[in-house]
Design brief:
- Helix content is 35%, strand content 17%.
- By secondary structure, the protein is an alpha/beta fold.
- The protein has 6 helices and 7 strands; from the N terminus they run H-E-H-E-E-H-E-H-E-H-E-H-E.
- Helix 3 packs parallel to helix 4.
């Protein structure tokens, strides 16, 4: 005689909130790869970006231009209303790149990258931190160039700032068991590689023989968001195919 297995406990509101993620830059590149990877793993995803782009209908799109303080504030307000029960993870993947040598730097380019990469993280994470469940996760997408690469000084500076912010926030949020980390990809096969704004510094194939795939960055990010990443915080994890070895 077969005995039926009794059902497990019903998911609590905290359990449901813990599987909700906000992903910036979710219309293309690494951001959309992370959003789709999380959806496939059963997460509820809200994607913040200027356009829906390639973000699937399985995720909720929230219009947001992180370079605009008002637009970012409105998006945060929408997220708070939509996910009134809380959120389990924030992934800041929005980014852009301008490249130029030291004698040709444009302040407006530096300011825009700072606004999206650094101030955008401040606005989104700062605006939602009290909605993050205890034990939640924050991942900032940096770059392996944050240690300094010729022709990318402005970009590298903004990405380096993310590592410092992550360590500070990790210390602040540790009492709530919220982890904060940086995933720092090397040359990744996205449309950004063909952006004319970075044409002065073309990508170099890593020693392992190919570019990093966005899906690989997404998998590493999800490792940090799931239970597997519960004891990793304040760290910068580089995924670059060996590009940082030279």
């Amino acid at each position: 005689m077969t005995t039926a297995t009794p059902p497990g406990p019903a998911p609590t509101s905290h359990d449901r909130a813990a599987r909700r993620a906000v992903v910036t830059g979710a219309s293309s590149g690494i951001g959309v790869a992370i959003a789709h990877d999380l959806v496939a793993a059963g997460w509820e995803v809200l994607g913040l970006s200027r356009s829906r782009g390639a973000l699937s209908d399985a995720a909720t799109w929230v219009p947001c231009d992180l370079a605009d303080v008002t637009s970012a504030a409105e998006a945060v307000s929408t997220v708070r209303e939509t996910l009134a029960g809380g959120v389990g993870a924030i992934v800041h993947a929005a980014g852009l790149q301008y490249s130029a040598g030291v004698g040709h730097l444009r302040p407006d380019h530096g300011e825009r990258m700072w606004a999206v990469h650094v101030r955008g993280a401040e606005l989104v994470v700062g605006g939602l931190v009290d909605a993050l469940v205890d034990g939640g996760r924050v991942v900032l997408v940096g770059s392996r160039t944050m240690t300094g690469v010729p022709g990318k000084s402005q970009y590298a500076a903004t990405k380096a700032a993310l590592a410092a912010m992550a360590r500070a926030w990790a210390a602040e949020l540790a009492p709530r068991r919220i982890t904060v980390n940086v995933v720092a990809p090397g040359p990744t096969r996205t449309a950004m590689l063909d952006d004319p704004n970075r044409a002065s510094v073309p990508p170099v194939q890593p020693p392992l023989g190919r570019l990093v795939e966005p899906s690989e960055v997404a998998a590493l990010t999800r490792f940090l968001l799931e239970r597997t990443g519960a004891m990793v915080t304040g760290q910068t994890i580089v995924i670059c195919g060996g590009a940082s070895l030279g």
